[in-house]
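Q: Structure tokens for this one, please.
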Amino acid sequence: MDYLRELHPVSILFRIFLAILLGGILGMERGRKNRPAGFRTYILVCLGAALVMMTNQYVCDVYHTGDPVRLGAQVISGIGFLGAGTIILTGRNQIKGLTTAACLWTAACIGLAIGIGFYEGAVCGGLAIVFTISGLQKVDVWMRKRSKYLDLYIEYNGGKGAFSDFLQYAREHQFDVTNIQVSQEEVFHKEKGKQRCVSYTLSVVSDVKRTHAEMIDILSQAKGIQYIEEL
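A: Here is the predicted structure, written as tokens:
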């Protein structure tokens, strides 16, 4: 292993191969879920970070100058620009892409570890990341479904003023409604065609223990609700 930590053609090829392998494993998981950054993107991020660290090691070994982690520090901060590009705010105030951005950042960290020859940390860290984004997904869904907090998108046909009836209905059924945002948009209905609709995004907290499906079922029965969806 000490032989592979030194910089020579064999270790360079091994590091490049390991960066492609671990970056590809992360990219396959994200690509399978049709995320903005997929298989090739993760390979390039991991491989690029590894090359940066090998270049830094080369400069220190050959020219006997410089900080061996200086270029790596620039990767850690610079990858933020790429990660930020995957985060989007939808028209319904949903934030998407945070997990993809975090994965890109960790892929760069794995590449840095590979590039400097810290193979044990890169492999163990890569496996831990794959377990987190794949193995713990069901745990995340389980926790979300059992949370008493619920974000909703609602299309309401009673007008802005009449929305107070919905708020009263929610209070009567032991719900607290917060973070209300109002917008007007055109929606298409098969029977009525295009119509202007007042839509709301809001947060709901149940004062009693209910599943998300039960909460939506109760609120969907309120007068004036045309459409309701969990965000």
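A few notes: The longest strand covers residues 175-189. The two ends are 49 Å apart (CA to CA).
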